[in-house]
Amino acid sequence: MTHFRPPRLIILSGPSGAGKSTVTRRLLSECRLPLRLSVSATTRAPRPSERDGREYHFLSQQQFAELREQDAFLESKEVFGSGHWYGTLRREVTDGLEAGQWIILEIDVQGAVEVMEHSAFDAISLFIHPGGMDELERRLRDRGTESERAIAKRLETAAEEMSCLHHYQYEIINGSVDTAVAQICQILRDHQETHTCSKN
User: Fold this and answer.
1) How far apart are alpha carbons 121 and 115 in whole angstroms?
2) What is the pLDDT, as a whole number, of residue 41?
3) CB 14 within 8 A of CB 184
4) What backbone phi and psi angles, to 5 degrees, belong to 185?
5) Which of 96, 119, 149, 199, CA to CA, is 20 to 30 A from 159?
6) Segments of the chain with pLDDT less than 70
7) Residues with Cβ < 8 Å from 126, sequence gap 6 or more?
8) In this predicted model, what pLDDT tens digit does every residue of 142-183 receive, in sequence order?
9) Which residues pair with 123 in a beta bridge?
10) Is the pTM of this model over 0.90?
11) Buried b / exposed e across 136-151, counting CB within 10 Å, b at 16+?
């Protein structure tokens, strides 16, 4: 007999260039679970194509600071060099879970570790990477969008993030998006279902 467990928080993170956004989009469209992506908050201004509540919750510096004082964030940080704050609103997760949805946090490693260490949520944590630093460097260079200095900084950060792999329940090597998505979907289905034996 199969019983379905309550919805869960899903933490999906890994170094820049690992393909997190692509995998997340595919999960939302293909995985047969009531998945929803948590929308982060930020103090940066919206870009022309962005809409409040869809890409981000756009907040003023004062609004963000007040919410931090109220402990409204599961995690938050200031991105040095930009002066902007980013964070995960607690209500984004709790409202979704209460509505029966499985909430995905597509988040950087620093934020993920903070959520896992300090939150009461029983999260399913997945660390995505492309298989090694050489492959990660190749992907970053293939983008052709960043300077050598920026690539070197990303690789330095990625090496630090890879050292956090032990904090996660699952390691997903994203050599193929199809395979990674199928693997994650199966992991989530295994967490959704619990089987019990009943006597006839």
Assistant:
1) 8
2) 98
3) no
4) -55, -40
5) 119
6) 1-3, 80, 194-200
7) 10, 11, 12, 13, 168, 169, 170, 171, 172, 184, 187
8) 887 788 888 898 899 999 999 999 999 999 999 999 999 999
9) none
10) no
11) bbebbeeeeeeeeeeb
36, amino acid identity = R
Which amino acid, 24? T
DSSP string, the chain: -EEEPPP-EEEEE--TTS-HHHHHHHHHHHSSS-EEEPPPEESSPPPTT--BTTTBEE--HHHHHHHHHTT-EEEEEEETTTTEEEEEEHHHHHHHHHTTPEEEEE--HHHHHHHHHH-----EEEEEE-SSHHHHHHHHHHH--S-HHHHHHHHHHHHHHHTTGGGSSEEEE-S-HHHHHHHHHHHHHHHHEEE-----
Residue 55 has phi, psi (to 5 degrees) of -75, -45
Task: Report the residue count for the chain.
Answer: 200
| Residue among 56, 54, 85, 55 at smallest CA distance from 69 | 85
pLDDT value of position 121: 87
- Under a CB-based contact definition with an 8 Å cutoff, are residues 25 and 37 in contact? no
Question: What would the two tokens of residue 65 be?
Answer: 């600071």
Ordered domains of the chain (ranges, CATH): 2-195 (3.40.50.300)
Reference 14, options 106, 86, 143; nearest CA is 106
State the Cα–Cα distance between residues 11 and 119, nearest whole angstrom. 12
